[in-house]
Structures are given as C-alpha cells and as structure tokens.
Amino acid sequence: MVLGKWVPEGTTLLVHHTSVSRSPAAWTDPDCYVPERWLGGAESEYRDDRRDWHQPFSYGPRNCLGQNMAWHEMRLVAASILYHFDVELCERETGDWLDQKCWIVWDRKPLICRVRPVAR
Ligand code: HEM
C-alpha cells in the first residue's frame, strides 16, 4: 500500500528523486541550497525537514551494497578538492542549472567551474 492505495503484486515502484528533493512537503525552502539543513538540531529552522525521505541508495533489503564505500569516497574526494582548490561557478558557460532532466538517474549537464590552487 502506498499513500492509502493498494499496488498490485509484482509492480516495480521507484521514488522520483527530483520530486522528493524539491517537495515542500519534505523541505523548508525546497528550492534553496542550504547545506546546513543536513545538520538538523532542535534550534534549526530546518529541524522538521524529512531527511529520511532522501534515499539515493534506495531502501530495503536490495538497497545499494556499496553505499558505505561510496560515502567514504565522496567525503574523501570532496574534502580533498576543497582543501586544495578554490572552486568558482562559471554561470555563463553553465547556463540554467535548474533546467535538468532526472529519470531514475540524473542526466547531468556540464558544470563549468574555475578551479584555482588554494594560496597558502
Ligand atoms: C554515489 C554512489 C552510489 C549510488 C547513488 C548508488 C545507488 C544505488 C542504487 C539506487 C541501487 C539500487 C538499489 C535497488 O535496486 O533498490 C544500487 C545497487 C547496488 N550498488 Fe550502488 N550506488 C553507489 C555506489 C556504489 C558502489 C561504490 C558500489 C560498490 C563498490 C555499489 C554497489 C552496488 C551493488 C552491488 C548494488 C546491487 C545490490 C543488490 O541488488 O542487492 N554501489 N546502488
């Protein structure tokens, strides 16, 4: 049963990531880039965000087997890039970033950035 409706046995169900990620039912300011919403916390204006609705590795007994490794890789890569480089978006070359297509996975468009070694 999904949202009070019976689904026939054998039906394949998927969660549409873009819809969930932009849903006002799940997020405060759904169209805003607010990384700190992921920190939660009782005092945060984003405390009621439904972070558990975000399931990029799917859900259930057949969810992604490699998700812990993927998290380690992503943290390492992101931390390493941000430690070594200043990254700036080139908006003119990138175009309208909100004009995206997303089915099961995201049909990613180029994200053109200016990358400079961090001055130390
Ligand atoms: C950001 C990176 C990744 C994302 C977003 C991702 C996402 C997913 C998703 C959505 C599924 C389908 C789950 C389902 O059918 O319900 C899946 C399955 C799977 N993933 Fe990943 N994955 C990632 C990285 C990895 C890595 C690094 C590995 C291995 C080292 C891996 C191994 C697998 C395997 C083996 C399955 C099949 C599990 C099964 O059918 O029981 N994934 N992944």
Automatic annotation (TrEMBL):
Superkingdom, natural source: Eukaryota
Q: Which Pfam family, any one, appears in the UniProt record? A: p450
Name the InterPro entries on file.
Cyt_P450, Cyt_P450_CS, Cyt_P450_E_grp-I, Cyt_P450_sf, Cytochrome_P450_monoxygenase
- Metal-binding is among the record's keywords: yes
Query: Cofactors per UniProt?
Result: heme
Determine if Repressor is one of this entry's keywords.
no
Keywords from the UniProt entry = Heme, Iron, Metal-binding, Monooxygenase, Oxidoreductase
The entry assigns this protein to a family as follows: Belongs to the cytochrome P450 family.
Q: What is this protein called?
A: Cytochrome P450
Please give the organism: Apiospora hydei
